[in-house]
Amino acid sequence: MKYKSFLVLLLAFGVLSVVYTKIASKDYPLKPVAFTEIQINDSFWLPRMETNRKVTIPFAFKKSEETGRIANFAKAGGLMSGKFEGLRYNDSDVFKIMEGAAYSLSLQRDKELEEYMDDLIAKVAAAQEEDGYLFTTRTIDPENPAPGAGEERWSNLGSSHELYNVGHMYEAAVAYYQATGKRNFLNVALKNADFIASVFGPGKRRGFPGHQEIEIGLVKLYRVTGDEKYLKLAKFFLDERGPEKHKKMFSDSSPFSIYNQDWYLQAHMPVIEQSNAVGHAVRAAYMYSGMADVAALTGNKAYIKAIDRIWDNVVSKKLYVTGGIGSRHEGEAFGDDYELPNATAYNESCAAIGNVFWNHRLFLLHGDAKYIDVLERTIYNGLLSGISLSGDLFFYPNPLESDGKYKFNQGEATRKPWFDCACCPGNFARFLPSFPGYVYAHTDDTLYVNLFVESKGTVKIGKNSMNVRQQTDYPWDGNVKITIEPEKETEFAVFIRIPGWARNEPVPSDLYSFLDPSKENITLKVNSETLELEMDKGFARIRRRWKKGDIIELALPAPVQKIIANDKVKDNLGKVVLQRGPLVYCFEEADNKGGVLNRSLPDDLEFKVEFKPDLLAGINILKSEPTEELPGLVGIPYYAWSHRGIGEMIVWIPRE
User: Fold this and answer.
1) Reduced DSSP (H G I as helix, E B as strand, rest coil) percent helix, strand, coil of the chain, to 5
2) Is 423 a catalytic residue?
3) Which of 267, 178, 266, 269 is nearest to 224 (CA)?
C-alpha cells in the first residue's frame, strides 16, 4: 500500500497522520467514507449539526468552566490554586467536548474555537505529571483524591476511571490532530499512553479498566502512529477481564459496592466466552466496539464470534423499539432477557451512542445491512430523544412512558441543562459532527449507501474518485434520488440498503413485528429503468458500468405501521407502537387533551400523515379521526417529546 492511499484510509477512520511508521496488514473489510468528505445539506440533520456547533459545544465548555472541570486542569498544572471540584471522572467530560470541537473544526475552521482549544490543551499539558500520568483529582491532592479514585495510582481500577478518562483524551487528541495538523494535544496523549504501556502488560502490572474506553482510544493512537504497542495494550486490557484473574482487584474501602460486582463490569468471564449482554450498558457497548476494532486489526476470530453472539442476545431480547439499551436504573444496566419496562426504562443517552458505535463496526466487519437497520433505529429515536432541539437540554435516561411526575431524569421529569455526572452532553457534542461518516462505506469495487440524507460528497472506489449526491426528504418521505458522477466511466457495484422497516422487519429478530405487514412495493430505477431487486445481506445490488450523470431512484413506501412485541415481553402484552419510516411515534399530553395514559388504540383505527412545518422544527404528525366512542389521537416522533412542558407521554399504547 502506498503512502498516499494510506492517508486516505486514516482519514476514513477519523485520523489523518504524517507520523505513520508501520502499515497494518489487517483491517475492516469495509471502509467508512470520512465525515469530512460528505456535506450534509438537508433540513433534518444540518440544523442539528449547526446547533451543535453554535450552541451545544460552546454551552458544554461554559458549563465545564462553571463547574470547575476545566479549572481542575489548571490547578493540577500549578496555574492556579484550589481544591479538586466534582467527580473523579470529570476530566473525561472535557475530553469528549474537545473531541466534538475538533470534529467541528474539521468541518468548518473557526479561529476563535481553535484558539480556545489551544489554550485548553495548554492547561491539560500542564496537568500532566513528569512521567506522563494524568488524573487531575490525584495530582491536585494526592493524599485526598475524590471518592472512588483509590488511595494511590491504579489501586482501585474498577471505579477510579483513571484509564477511562485518558481513553477519551486519546480520541480527542487524534481528532484535533486530524483537524489542525497540530501535535500539541497528540504529544500529551502519546506521552500518557507510553507511560501506561510501561506500567501495564504481560510481565508487568495486571489489571483492566472498570469503565471501558481506553481500548478504543489506543486503537486510534495505533492508527495514527503505526506503533503496535498501543494495539497490543488495547488487547491486553480486554483479555485481562475475567474473575479468575483478579479475585481482589478493587479497593475494599470503595464506597461504590456495585463496582466490585464482576457482571457490572463485564468481567464475569473472559471476553471471548461471553454470550449475553450484562452490566452497565455504556461500558458494555464501548467494550464491544473496542473488541471489534482489535479483531479487525489482528484477525482475532474469537472476538468476532463473541460480539456476534452478544449482538444476537441484544437484538433478540434486550433492545427497545427505540433502539435504546440498558433497561435498569440499578447499575445503568442491561436487564434479564425480555426485561423491557417502559415507564422505568433507563436507556441512557450514552448507551444509545455506544450502540451506534458498536453496530457500525459490526457492519464494517460483516457488510450486513441489519447492523445499519439497528443503527438507524437508534439514531432517529433513542439517540436524538436525548438532546433538545435547542441543543442545550439533555435527557440522561430515555423512558418510553411518563406520567409527568416520576422523577426519572436525575431528579427531573424533563430534559436538564447539565448533570453532576455530565457524560451525555459531551457525547452528543462529539457524535453530531461525525454523523456524515455513517452515510457511506466502500470497498475497492463497491459503494455502500447506508443512510438516506440530502447531501453531496466525494468517494473513492479503487483508483476512481467520484461525486455522489443524494436528494431526499428522508425521514419524512421514502423517496431517494442518488446521482453518481465518476471521474471516468468504469464498472463497479452500488449497494443500496433497503431498510428493514421497508421489508416488514422492524428489527432483525422476532422481538418486534408489524401487526399488518405492508403490501406496497419498493421500486428501484437506474436512469428511469425499473430494476428487479437483487438482494445481498439487506442491500439492493446494482453492478454496471457507471458514467457521469447516472441516476438511481429508490422509492420506499412509508405507510403508518403498528408494531407489536414478542409475547415474552410482559410489559408490552396487548400493546402497540406506531411507526412510519424509521421513526417511532409517541402520544403526548400536549397534543391530546385529558392525557394519554388512559387511552387505547384499537387495531382498526387508522391514521393520516400531516406535515407541520412550524411544530417542533417541522415534523410529520400522525392523526386519527375522532369517532363516537373515541376522541382522535395525535402522535409525534418520539425524539421530539418533552419540548412543550411536563405532561403524560406513552409509546406502547393498549390496543383495547
Assistant:
1) 40, 20, 45
2) yes
3) 178
Q: Where do the structural domains in the chain lie, given as residue ranges?
A: 3-438, 440-499+521-555, 560-654
This prediction's pTM = 0.95
CA-to-CA separations, 266 to 260, 272, 353, in angstroms, rounded: 11, 11, 19
Catalytic annotation present for 586:
no
3-state secondary structure of 492: strand
Phi, psi of 575 (to 5 degrees): -120, 165
Q: Domain 440-499+521-555: what homologous superfamily?
A: Maltose phosphorylase, domain 3 (2.60.420.10)
Tell me how far apart the alpha carbons of residues 561 and 583 are, in angstroms, rounded to a whole number.
10
Catalytic residue among 99, 162, 213, 423: 423
pLDDT at 244: 67
pLDDT at 631: 86
The pLDDT value recorded for residue 21 is: 35
Instruction: Give the per-residue pLDDT at 24.
Output: 52
For 59, the enclosing helix (H) or strand (E) is helix 57-66
Q: For the chain, which residues score pLDDT lower than 70?
A: 1-24, 244-260
Going by C-alpha positions, the residue among 208, 186, 185, 184 that lies closest to residue 196 is 208
Q: Measured in Å, how far apart are the chain's first and last C-alpha atoms? A: 63
| Category of 56 on φ-ψ map: left (φ > 0), alpha (ψ -120 to 50) or beta | alpha
Q: What are phi and psi of 144, to 5 degrees?
A: -140, 60
Select from 235, 221, 121 the least CA-distant residue to 170.
Answer: 221
Which grid coordinates belong to 247? 479475585
Q: Which of 37, 213, 215, 332 is catalytic?
A: 332
Q: Are 362 and 372 in contact (CB under 8 A)?
A: no
Phi, psi of 70 (to 5 degrees): -80, -35
Q: Which fold has domain 3-438?
A: Glycosyltransferase (1.50.10)
Q: Are strands 653-654 and 619-624 parallel, antiparallel or unpaired?
A: unpaired
CA distances from 119 to 96, 114, 169, 258 (A): 16, 9, 16, 38
For residues 229, 231, 233, 236, the Cα torsion angle rounded to the nearest 10 degrees is: -130
The answer to whether 372 touches 497, Cβ cutoff 8 Å, is yes
* Numbers of helices and strands, H then E, in the chain: 17, 23
Please state, in angstroms and as integers, the Cα–Cα distance from residue 209 to each residue in 265, 348, 540, following that order: 9, 20, 42
